[in-house]
Amino acid sequence: MHTRKLGNSNVELSAVGLGCMGMSSGVYGNADRQESIATIHAAMEAGITLLDTGDFYGSGHNEMLISEALQGKKREQAFIAVKFDVLRDPHGGFGGVDGRPAAVKNFLTMTLQRLNTDYIDLYQPARLDPNVPIEETVGAIAEMVQAGYVRHIGLSEVGADTIRRAHAVHPISWLQIEYSLFSRGIEREVLPVLRELGISLNPYGVLDRGLLSGTWTKERSANPGDFRVSGPRFQGDNLERNLELVEKLRRVAEARGMNAAQMAIAWVLGQGKDIIPLIGARKRLQLDDALRAAEIDLTSEELQAIGSLFDPKDVAGDRYDKHQMALLDSEK
């Protein structure tokens, strides 16, 4: 497994990370606990060091699952990144976000307990709290860095101005945000700011929640237990249009001896050594595509050709529904 440097630090991370969200039921349907743990083990055995989670994934379940998977392993074998500030209710619903300094420390306290660890490698608010200045939220995390409970600070789904303001309070190590062949909006303003400040990019959704895998079908969109079926890109005419675009990618990938998923991941990896993408595999078979993609070196000509297969403006539908899009500072 190749490694990539985290921001301006001396930390080297695996070139791809494992996103663990789907390992908690209620996201992509039911999850298999034993297969999830086996997938984490397989990822680490293959050299993946980065494990990404959120305290609201499964309302704490995801953190406890990772803790169980790491039993018997040395703490430093895993770089654990945790998102916080999303509020949940007993019915599994969402109640907004809370980025107040007191809430930051409360969220962190519970996370340390669930993960059975003395520190979190990287801590980041999942969404910007519109009622709390980012300086206050990051300032509270910085206090936890000074106290030894957090090693690095990250941000998620925020725009260029917010990145600059946060970085002025404490060095930001990465920005976690959606980036793929289907979602390339960050190339205009966000990515240049990250590179100016020496902040890594930690993309999620590199397969656009499975659309770019080349295996999604209209029939799969009938599964009510999968949150993706409510996404604009997975519905009706939008889905048909998007699957036509994926077919272009699949044909080019097969001519190169890859599948569509591997090519989509390799394309994101090829956009810069400061990019450390997450792969949301919850089964060992899905993980295999990521591991193979991490070994592929696409030439600059290939990267350009893949990037020009279709115009991102041709992608039908937003990446989230209207309510969730309104919560994204990165889209304002």
Automatic annotation (TrEMBL):
InterPro entries referenced in this protein's UniProt entry, alphabetically: Aldo-Keto_reductase, NAD(P)_OxRdtase_dom_sf, NADP_OxRdtase_dom
Identify the keywords attached in UniProt to this record, alphabetized.
Answer: Oxidoreductase
| Stretches that traverse the bilayer | none
Q: Which SUPFAM superfamilies match?
A: NAD(P)-linked oxidoreductase
What Pfam family is a match for this entry?
Answer: Aldo_ket_red
Keyword Ribosomal protein found: no
**Does the UniProt entry include the keyword Cytoplasm?**
no
**Where is coiled-coil annotated?**
none
Q: Where is the NADP-dependent oxidoreductase domain?
A: 16-308
> Which PANTHER family does this entry report, sorted A to Z?
AFLATOXIN B1 ALDEHYDE REDUCTASE, ALDO-KETO REDUCTASE YAKC [NADP(+)]
What's the protein called, per UniProt? Aldo/keto reductase
